[in-house]
Amino acid sequence: KQEVTQIPAALSVPEGENLVLNCSFTDSAIYNLQWFRQDPGKGLTSLLLIQSSQREQTSGRLNASLDKSSGRSTLYIAASQPGDSATYLCAVRRRAGNNRKLIWGLGTSLAVNP
Amino acid sequence: GAGVSQSPSNKVTEKGKDVELRCDPISGHTALYWYRQSLGQGLEFLIYFQGNSAPDKSGLPSDRFSAERTGGSVSTLTIQRTQQEDSAVYLCASTQSGGADTQYFGPGTRLTVL
């Protein structure tokens, strides 16, 4: 059974710091992995999607890496800003085709202090 | 529309009543997903629609839950004889096509069953 774990559960940093959020999954046979951001009352926003054949994806100050063999992904946020404060979720899709179920972590709640 | 919309934003109901939650996906998006997020728990996949059909209903927790999608657009999630454990935020997401994975989420409906 695929399980997704995110550590830390919460993180508070001063503005400007570089930081790393961790996501681990128990079954390395995945189709892709996604990182999302959740803001209160605003739903979820997809940040980065990494296919199983890829090692990393970058978008602006965000970089996500994937190591399938060790069952790990990291989300790196460079030069953090107060606007980055949110809950960050990772989710794993197990296979292609009509099985679209995503397995979700519980998230890391990030606070970036001015 | 500009994004995924959901209504109502909040719903308070009494135990045993039926509720209907609505999702209006981004125009032209063929795939639609329903999730549930309970307090302190990760997101839970409920059902996936491709067009008007639902190839994956594996996440519906009981036969009290049903969903339909008409005209390849709006979807309704119906919960019959609501129970207190149904209290959660119900999230809807859509993707551009069945093969695309970047999901665009609505703001959710917060359901409270008294």
What report would you give on this structure?
- The complex is a heterodimer of chains A (114) and B (114).
- Chain A is 0% helix and 56% strand.
- Chain A is mostly beta strands and 114 residues long.
- In chain B, strand 7 (65-69) and strand 8 form a beta hairpin.
- Chain B is globular, with a radius of gyration of 13 Å.
- The model of chain B has no long low-confidence stretch (mean pLDDT 91).
- The chains are: A mainly beta (114), B mainly beta (114).
- The A-B interface holds A 4, 32, 34, 36, 41-46, 49, 89, 91, 93, 98-102, 104-107 and B 4, 31, 33, 40-45, 48, 50, 55-56, 58-59, 91, 93, 101-108.
In short:
By secondary structure, chain A is mainly beta.
Question: Count the strands of chain A?
Answer: 11
Mean pLDDT of chain A: 92
Alpha carbon gap, first and last residue of chain A: 41 Å
Question: Largest interface, and how many residues on either side?
Answer: A-B, 23 and 25 residues
Task: Tell me about the largest β-sheet of chain A.
Answer: 6 strands, mixed
Over the alpha carbons, how many angstroms does the gyration radius of chain B reach? Answer: 13 Å
Low-confidence stretches of chain B: none
Choose one word for the global shape of chain A. globular
Low-confidence stretches of chain A at least 5 residues in length (pLDDT < 50)? none
Strand content of chain A: over 45%
Please count the helical segments of chain A. Answer: 0
Give Rg of chain A in angstroms: 14 Å
The portion of residues assigned to helices of chain B is under 10%
Q: SSE string of chain A, helix = H, strand = E?
A: EEEEEEEEEEE
